[in-house]
Structures are given as C-alpha cells and as structure tokens.
C-alpha cells in the first residue's frame, strides 16, 4: 500500500538531491569570487562598457584601462566586418611585434584578407578577379614557400576563384563561412593579450573546460554522479538563486544598452558557458 502511494506522488514534488549535488552545495564559491570571474571574462573577451558597469554594480575595482580593452574591441570589430587591412593596421599601431613574432597569425590574417577580396570579386558573374590575384602574388606567395601549411592554405584559397560559390566542397565553403572571421579574431585577441603579459583566455572558460574534463573522466570511471550536471551559471534545478550581479551584468554585455558592440559570431554568447 505504501509503495502504491509513493508511485502516485505528484510530479511537482521537490526531487531528492543526489549526494553529489549536496557536496557541491557545501563548497559553493563566494559571491565575490564569482564577481571577479565575471569581471575577468568581460575584460579578457573585450567588453569595456559591460566591465565598467559591472564594476559599479558589483562594487569591485576595475583593474585595467578601458582604453586598452577598446583597442582590442576595435580590432575585433574590423575583422568581423571583413575589413582585414584596417585590423592589421590597428594591430601594428598597437605593437608591430605582435605580427612580426607570429608569422602564422600574420599569414592567417593575410589569407583572410584574400578571402574577403575573392568574396567581393566573385559576388557578381563578371567580377574582376585581378585585385585578388595581385594581392595573393604580392603578399602571400612570397611567404608560402617558407611553410608547407602556408602553401596548402594559399592553394586552397585560390581555388575559390575556380569553383562557383554555390557548389563548393566543405573545405572550401568553410573559407567563406563567417566562423573563419570569428576564429581569426579570437586568435588575434589572444595574441594581443599574450603580448601585453596577460592570460590568453578568461579564467571562466578555463574552469568550464576543466569541469567538463573532470565530468567526462568521472563518467568513464563509472563514478556515482547525476545523469545531467548543470553548469550552474543560469540558475540550478533546485530553485537556487544566482547572484544578481553575475546574471544581469553578464547578460547586459550581450543584450542590453551597455554600449558594447553586439555582433553575430563575435563570442557575445560564449559556446563554453551558455
């Protein structure tokens, strides 16, 4: 009889926490620690207005110059808009050693610039391809022999001039995908941060990847953990509240009037934490 009564328990009954979840509750980080993680993320990923607003709301010190963040934002904006020449000029204004000491990144930017030229000249059936060929000859061809990967990348990029855009192989179509701009912008941001003596990646992203690694290892070892583990940044499944500063200000950097540029594929919604 008792068993039957238990089986009829309404689905709205508060679920019993797993032992693992109880242990997690016992070691929750402080609100201050979380706020500094969010601040570090906003600074590293380039959201100066959101960082400034968050510092005020969370009552913590903004330990960086907003102008230095904005310089990275301007470069990212140029790359995402396809203006690679402007991005290269801004990088060199910031510090020419960034590209001088990283030939692979410099070549990646130049190849992206070639992709943008090809995109423009092939947008119409009778487009002039000479600007793309001249750029490839003067800027990329001299660098290609120094690295086999450079040569392969250049040959694959020039193949875009041969095949119609609506009938490209996956490897060629990827060159015209906006995600390529995003990937290069991320590499540039990391290179600038490293040049300035900062970490290339926000602590929050590192922690999330470490957590995912630990969870996978625990499941491989058949440890007793819940079937699904929430990341914990958008509220938990037991009605727990998330620190208001963390939620409101981080979302504000992507969706409201903080003043930061919101761009498609710009990393505003981070695939590691959303």
UniProtKB/TrEMBL annotation:
Transmembrane intervals: none
InterPro entries assigned: CRA_dom, CTLH/CRA, CTLH_C, LisH, Ubq-SigPath_Reg
A Pfam family recorded for this sequence: LisH
Region called Disordered, residue ranges: 229-274
Domain CTLH stretches: 68-125
Regions of compositional bias (Polar residues) in chain numbering: 239-259
Function description: Involved in the proteasome-dependent degradation of fructose-1,6-bisphosphatase.
Protein name: Protein FYV10
Organism: Penicillium decumbens
Lineage: Eukaryota, Fungi, Dikarya, Ascomycota, Pezizomycotina
